[in-house]
Amino acid sequence: MIINVDKTNLNSLLGVPNRQLTIPAYQRPYAWEFEQVDELWHDIVETLGGNHFMGSVVMCSPDNARPEVIDGQQRLTTIILLLALIRDKYQALKPELVGRVQQFFENAYAPADLRFKFRPGNANARVFTDFILCAPDNAARGDWAAVRQLDSHELNRNKRMIENTERLSAYLDQYLAASDNPLHSLEKLETNIMTGLEFVVIDVPDIANAFIIFETLNDRGLALSAGDLLKNHLLAAAAKTNESVEALAQDWDKIIDNLEGGDITRFLRHYLLTQHAQVQKDDVFGLFKKEVGTRGVKQLIKDLKQMSRFYGQFIKPELVEDAAVREVYQNLNTLRATMCYSALLAASPVLNNEDLRDFARLCELLTFRYSTICSKDSKELERFYHNAAKVLASQGAAGLAEARKALEAASPSSEEFVLAFRTQSMGRQYIVNYIFRGIENFLSPDEKTLLNTQSVHIEHIMPQTLSAEWKEVLGEDVGQHESYVNRWGNLTLLGGRLNISASNRLFADKKLSYEQSKIALAAELTSYETWSFEQIDERQEKLAVIAEGIWSI
């Protein structure tokens, strides 16, 4: 393998006439976080007048007019963003200097497809060209005030670029505001970027070798996730067998889109857990490399595309067509129940809607009983979900009964559940909402009192802040207030208007609000004559028994 290695700066890198540095279509969109942008800015400012090594840029040049940037796009994109902001400042301070920067963005006499000297990947190309690379006086230049009015898909793909442009703009404003001579300071900054930032360009002859280099180099860029590494490995494998790298990259983008914002590494880990009993985050890439070797690129990508669509429904339940399945997925979302995703992934392609609903409901019940209420070891629960997933992955629908049995075996007993429930306090509000709405729907299944959930709030029966009257009622036991006030036995659901009117009044007065409520949990409180710590214990034990009936397996 012949590799050319050259030390260079941005002046030389962008100064070649009629050449366009291209980010291949298969590369991930621009993704630098604020942390990387901040570090780059401070490095540039702190080394003004000197040199600063920016790391390597790996390029593949099958076409000398369009060398492809295999590694380094995050750094180069961010630096060019900053240069464009400097150019725009010249427009206000000294317009004749705009062209000095713009010449490194545009090829003056090149054909239209080579007009700009740097072209990001497809996800970022239009925004980068129209809003950043175009000269300030160009009629085609997009108005930055309108950049956030892009359609939601394009805006999402360019979110980091937009935010980082605005962040660098703010840094630049601060830098110039602190200077006695803003124009001189701006020129000094420009010169340092163009000549003081040093790169090592590694030019390889073909794409397969470029991927080999890329897998071992990622200095200074966004740390590669298991998803990034796997994508790179798949592309390298495709290149070696003369498969279409571009088509495979499009398939990978479809996988990412299918996930509906879900983390790619978490999805890959849950996918592996359908086959492997233990998978740590650091194991994901190594295990998938073995999968590629065993199953081949095409089959693996086909499977990942299907599974990513199911996974996206876990993240965004509204995509599920079947209303009953959708409702259970929404409950799992409310519980933040991700550990069961491996089992649901294995179940989704093999079960009909009715069986999938029941299996997903079992996952909901088990997650609630095992983790939410009894706080048992999550590693053990993951093992149970893996056992169920493995059965479904290997046997399909025929293994449903065995898979259910594997999960049912993990459930805490009724005694353990009730005992744990009786001592619970407020904790996370989404958990309290889930529990009390579940109990309310059980108590009044036909009333549909919670259709408008926006107007229903959690009410503390004994108020969080005790009035003098409440302190008098509690007497010498008032010291127990802090340990009891957030207990579930002291909570109910109440409509917003009634919640405000109840406030921190005495219990006898609050009962007037409870009597007016259509919510059964509030209305049943009118059966109590007084309200103190004894009633809180009594009511929480009653709720525990009801909950055991609702969330029983």
TrEMBL record:
Domain GmrSD restriction endonucleases C-terminal: 427-544
Location of the GmrSD restriction endonucleases N-terminal domain: 12-235
Domain of life: Bacteria
Protein name per Swiss-Prot or TrEMBL: Uncharacterized conserved protein, contains ParB-like and HNH nuclease domains
